[in-house]
Amino acid sequence: MRSGGVLISDWAEQSTVANYERGEAEPSASALSAYSQLGISLNWLLTGEGEMFADPSKATAGPKPRGIDPAVFRQVGRLVMRVHKEEWIKLPTDAVLDEQADAYNALLARAEDPSDTDELMALLAWLEARLKKRLRAAAEEPGTGKRQA
Questions:
Q1: Structure confidence by residue, pLDDT tens digits, 45-83
Q2: Is the pLDDT assigned to residue 31 strictly greater than 80?
Q3: Residue 53 sits in the same domain as residue 85
């Protein structure tokens, strides 16, 4: 969860922060201290007046969102299509795109450095084995909707 660019979920449960925002609970002294350490103005937090950050020039926008690596995404898409074809599973276009996105996200989650294209490409063999294992398990389970073509 972000509050003006500050990542709150590193130290507080989202439901707790949501309770503060809805006025259902008030932050404890330790929570106020943590907000202060993040650079959030306690005056703003308690009254809603003034600047959100005690020193707006030090406010951070947080990490820049990472874009999709087109070369890796393309390779993942090809892998998804090939594995489904090998397993005799035909998917509608939307389902292929969902599978591709899920596989790409799994690849990023597995990588030590998701911005390292070489590492992501090296993990494609792991992704292929994972996908085949999942598809075969689904085909063996009755009622999963996976059927042999």
A1: 777 788 877 777 766 555 556 788 999 999 999 999 999
A2: no
A3: no
134 Cβ partners below 8 Å, 6+ apart?
Answer: none
Q: What is the pTM of this model?
A: 0.54
Question: Does 93 share its domain with 54?
Answer: no
Cα–Cα–Cα angle for 130, 132, 133, rounded to 5 degrees: 65
> Is it the case that residue 86 has pLDDT exceeding 90?
yes
What residues contact 103, with CB distance under 8 A and at least 6 apart?
76, 79, 80, 127, 131
Q: How far apart are CA 124 and CA 145, in angstroms?
A: 26
pLDDT at 45: 75
Whether the CA torsion 12, 16, 19, 24 is positive or negative: it is: negative
Structural contact between residues 17 and 8, judged by C-beta atoms closer than 8 angstroms: yes
Residues 74 and 121 in one domain: yes
Domain holding 25, by residue range, is 2-58
Let me know: does 36 contact 42? Beta carbons within 8 Å.
yes
